[in-house]
Design brief:
Elements (H helix, E strand, L loop, with lengths): L2 H4 L2 H10 L4 H19 L2 E4 L1 H16 L12 E4 L26 H8 L4 E5 L33 H8 L5 E5 L6 H7 L2 E4 L20 E5 L2 H11 L17 H7 L10 E5 H4 L6 H16 L3 E5 L7 H16 L19 H12 L2 H14 L5 H21 L5 E5 L15 H5 L6 H6 L3 E9 L2 E8 L5 H19 L14
Parallel strand pairs: 2-3, 2-4, 7-8, 7-9
Antiparallel strand pairs: 1-3, 4-6, 5-6, 5-10, 9-11, 10-11
Helix pairs in contact: 3-4, 8-9, 9-18, 12-14, 12-15
Protein name: Glutamyl-tRNA(Gln) amidotransferase subunit A
Pfam families: Amidase
Keywords: ATP-binding, Ligase, Nucleotide-binding, Protein biosynthesis
Amino acid sequence: MTDLTKLTAAELAQRLTAGETTSVEATQAHLDRITAVDGVVHAYLTVDAEGALQQAEAADAARAAGDTTSPLAGVPIAVKDNLVTRGLETTAGSRILEGWQPPYDAHVIERLRAAGMPILGKTNMDEFAMGSSTETSGFGATNNPWGLDRIPGGSGGGSAAAVAAFEAPIALGTDTGGSVRQPASVTGTVGVKPTYGGVSRYGAIAMASSLDQIGPAARTVLDAALLHDVIGGHDVRDQTSMTHDWPSFASAAQAGLESDAVAGLRVGVPRQLAEGEGFEAGVRERFQEALDVLTARGATITWIDLDTLDYAVAAYYLLMPAEVSSNLARYDSVRYGLRVTPEGANVEQVMSATRAAGFGDEAKRRILLGTYALSSGYYDAYYGSAQKVRTLVQGDFDRAFGEVDVLVAPTSPTVAWKLGERLDDPTAMYVADITTIPANLAGIPALSLPMGLSEGLPVGFQFMAPAREDARLYKVGAALEAALNEQWGSPLYAQAPELKEA
């Protein structure tokens, strides 16, 4: 591993600006790292070495001509495989899309290309983002760089693992119920779910449209903020895209490094997201230590009750499958990817055979659950009731933010579990997102950053803020990150185990 792959995105950008390296050198260093270790991590589904190097050459040429407008120009990036990339295979982790090359770029991909960021490749994920472990991918599981027999979280385990294994300095993911933040928690990285509508979903393969949100995966809060600045903003092609005038998130993160950044900050801890069964002792201890750090720097901690959160997971697992059953109906053997044609079969039989062969067990389970919830006679009892719970959750958050500036909780109740340990118990898998799901139901921004180790494995600390207050998250997140790094003597990612290179 070279020095270039050990750098954060911000550090790498500084070297590029100073002329101490080139985008081609940085991109090649990460491609070499992928070649060396991805055989054991399996973070990537597709590596586009030729395309990445061409983009890097263009970035270097633009810089030489004085045409560099983005702070991250020339910094390579990995992209989750449910973000469509023109001419580059996009599968969303599903066999039913194997071989499909989109004819257009997602909005965020257009932004990356305009910013001069070479795309290293597409990262592994749970099929159509359905899962908490990246084990439901149609192309095999990803391994956690902190323990190769452990899950890297899901559904964006590939993006988080690529960043944690130094196979990319930064990456993009999508977060429907915690799919950026929960992988960040178990891999010792930073993950952000922006305010719903803050980043265009145009070109993001939909799982649950009212919950999906694209967000950054990074090694530091500042890196995530820099990437958020690149991908955020209004897009007329997404009807849910906000026209809000966003501040600079990178400036907010840099403001968090000031000594009084959290002085007077009112911090609320929802008991329902930090206590109860399922929270491991080590997670509780690291969480309390992080709260003590905030208190020592002038924040005020208040424990509060948000009673409707007791029903958030149940509501989510009715709403999300209902939208899944609708969104995945488009994979009918006609328009995309796989087509299975049994001899003598009619159209319906071809469609049925294709979906049977192309979808994995978890996708089929959620399609059936969602179809049942939306069926005649059950709509009001299930989907309608879940929508009412969602409204109550949003009301609870609104009231809480009338009393505190941010809400906090452990990002995940446990450390990364062993591969295969929960595959036969979907309910146990679902509750892994118990602390991240409420932010998606409410549409508010949330950020996860490392808060230490338990059993030698990373655990994450989650900040949540009112809608459109993403900048507040970056400021307080950077402040806590700096305080913890000072306490540890180095960033947590620097303590990651060395991976054996071929």
